[in-house]
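TICKET: design request
STATUS: open
ATTACHED STRUCTURE:
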């Protein structure tokens, strides 16, 4: 999409937020970076805010799997130029990117809906339903702020076993942090939950961000982050 539909000559990828920073520092021609809130190395939106301060001319777009009004507003306060949900149809996503590249700010209409709830794509909830009963319980406690040691004590299992369950659960969900995993659990209806599942509450200080593709338009380099 970036190359074919947006006319971007160069699309680079990075596997972590630190790699993104290194690439930008080495190549001042990078014009736009797209960041997934699940990108390794993200620590909430503070790093986005600092990125905007350090590189005021850089267009910064968040491309997120999970979408809720509060997170989008927080991201706007951090200085982003666009918040694009991953579940948008290709045509709408193109409109969003073109708006950002034209110097505008893009956010979904959801941001103006005071009663809007968190959006969790069906693919994520489908994967969440493949978790085992024990993985559900471990993730619920993890997202509720419990340490691995506390989870092990609560479930009467070894701490090493807790780590195994977390790794397997994250792989099943296709996520990298507790925030995205908790959001996937929240997307399930009560009937879909495993018996005894602890549904975590996402605290504002626990919300993190996810990262991917950066781009360049009309011959100007942009920088996308890898999934």
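STATUS: resolved
RESOLUTION: sequence designed for all positions
ATTACHED SEQUENCE:
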């Amino acid at each position: 999409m970036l190359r074919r539909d947006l006319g971007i000559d160069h699309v680079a990828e990075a596997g972590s937020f630190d790699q993104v920073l290194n690439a930008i520092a080495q190549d001042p021609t990078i014009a736009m970076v797209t960041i997934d809130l699940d990108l390794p190395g993200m620590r909430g939106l503070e790093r986005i805010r600092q990125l905007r301060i350090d590189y005021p001319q850089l267009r910064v777009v968040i491309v997120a799997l999970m979408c809720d009004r509060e997170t989008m507003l927080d991201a706007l306060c951090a200085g982003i130029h666009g918040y694009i949900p991953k579940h948008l149809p290709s045509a709408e996503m193109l409109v969003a990117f073109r708006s950002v590249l034209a110097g505008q700010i893009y956010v979904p209409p959801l941001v103006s809906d005071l009663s809007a709830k968190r959006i969790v794509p069906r693919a994520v909830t489908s994967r969440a339903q493949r978790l085992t009963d024990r993985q559900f319980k471990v993730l619920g406690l993890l997202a509720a702020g419990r340490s691995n040691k506390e989870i092990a004590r609560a479930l009467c299992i070894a701490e090493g076993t807790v780590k195994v369950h977390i790794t397997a659960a994250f792989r099943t969900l296709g996520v990298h942090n507790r925030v995205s995993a908790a959001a996937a659990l929240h997307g399930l209806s009560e009937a879909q939950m495993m018996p005894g599942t602890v549904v975590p509450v996402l605290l504002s200080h626990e919300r993190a961000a996810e990262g991917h593709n950066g781009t360049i338009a009309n011959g100007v380099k942009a920088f996308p982050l890898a999934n």
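CLOSING REMARK: The mean pLDDT is 74. The two ends are 15 Å apart (CA to CA).
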